[in-house]
């Protein structure tokens, strides 16, 4: 089961805590009128919700849904965090099949990684996808964050619930991204080889654009023919590799022009362009004006 949650609305945390049962324990029966999240730090929990049985293990996160009866069906030792919250924007979502979910997650990831970071608009709509049960890779990170939330809850100074609710939203978004990455990676063997290769090239460029990038360097890195990589890349993005690299570099240059007082030659170097004359030509080609005009139009005459 997958939930869809709008990320522009805070969940409202009512209660948060940590429980540790060192001896065998079976969960009591309950029907809540709110969402409850369990994060298993150690041990096991055997839980049944509306007749469906789940085995929760160390590192698992699990969402109990409002209006559904849940109770334990087997005793076990367990240490876990629990967060009780209300949300009008967390809804169950049905996909026709697994490939629909994969395609949607891949689409959203592509839009995000190719978005203009200077734009005031969000690259995706304000939603994320969360599985009902999921194993967290970095359990220590989440445990530490949840302990901070519990500390805020117990101290109860001003705005403590807003802080906890904001942190919960942050954690859920992180879990959603981790889940999306797992789904995208696991589907790599199921998608076409050209599309998978193009995605790898896109990730590589987004992390290496400040370094020297030539067709030869990219081809050697992937141990593939550069023309083949270029065709795959254009099929995915609509741009050639070099054109995308230049677009990315000028986008980052715009960001530095707006947020620093560095010289244009320094900015050019930082985005991976050694030749200032080539930088000027590229900037005008992609921005439609010179770097000086861009600065004057955005900073002096906003």
TrEMBL record:
InterPro entries: AraC-bd, Homeodomain-like_sf, HTH-like, HTH_AraC, HTH_AraC-typ_CS. Residues 199-297 form the HTH araC/xylS-type domain. One of its GO terms (molecular function) is DNA-binding transcription factor activity. SMART domains: HTH_ARAC. Keywords: DNA-binding, Transcription, Transcription regulation. It comes from the Bacteria. PANTHER family: ARAC-FAMILY TRANSCRIPTIONAL REGULATOR, HTH-TYPE TRANSCRIPTIONAL ACTIVATOR RHAS. This is AraC family transcriptional regulator. The lineage of its organism: Bacteria, Bacillati, Bacillota, Clostridia, Lachnospirales.
């Amino acid at each position: 089961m997958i939930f869809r949650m709008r990320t522009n609305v805070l969940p409202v945390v009512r209660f948060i805590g940590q429980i540790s049962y060192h001896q065998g324990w079976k969960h009591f029966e309950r029907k809540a009128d709110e969402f409850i999240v369990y994060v298993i730090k150690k041990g096991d929990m055997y839980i049944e919700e509306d007749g469906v049985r789940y085995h929760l293990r160390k590192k698992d996160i699990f969402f109990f849904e409002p209006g559904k009866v849940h109770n334990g069906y087997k005793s076990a030792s367990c240490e876990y965090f629990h967060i009780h919250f209300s949300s009008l924007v967390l809804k169950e979502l049905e996909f026709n099949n697994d490939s629909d979910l994969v395609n949607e997650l891949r689409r959203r990831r592509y839009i995000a990684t190719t978005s203009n970071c200077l734009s005031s608009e969000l690259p995706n709509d304000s939603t994320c996808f969360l599985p009902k049960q999921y194993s967290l890779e970095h359990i220590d990170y989440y445990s530490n964050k949840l302990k901070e939330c519990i500390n805020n809850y117990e101290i109860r100074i001003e705005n403590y619930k807003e802080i906890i609710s904001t942190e919960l939203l942050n954690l859920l978004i992180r879990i959603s991204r981790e889940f999306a990455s797992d789904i995208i990676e696991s589907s790599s063997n199921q998608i076409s080889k050209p599309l998978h290769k193009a995605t790898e090239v896109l990730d590589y460029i987004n992390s290496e654009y400040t370094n020297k990038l030539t067709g030869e360097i990219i081809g050697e890195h992937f141990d593939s023919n550069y023309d083949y990589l270029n065709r795959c890349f254009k099929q995915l993005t609509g741009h050639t590799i070099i054109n995308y690299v230049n677009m990315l570099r000028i986008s980052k240059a715009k960001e530095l022009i707006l947020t620093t007082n560095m010289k244009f030659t320094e900015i050019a170097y930082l985005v991976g362009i050694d030749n200032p004359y080539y930088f000027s030509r590229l900037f005008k080609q992609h921005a439609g004006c010179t770097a000086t005009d861009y600065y004057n139009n955005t900073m002096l005459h906003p």
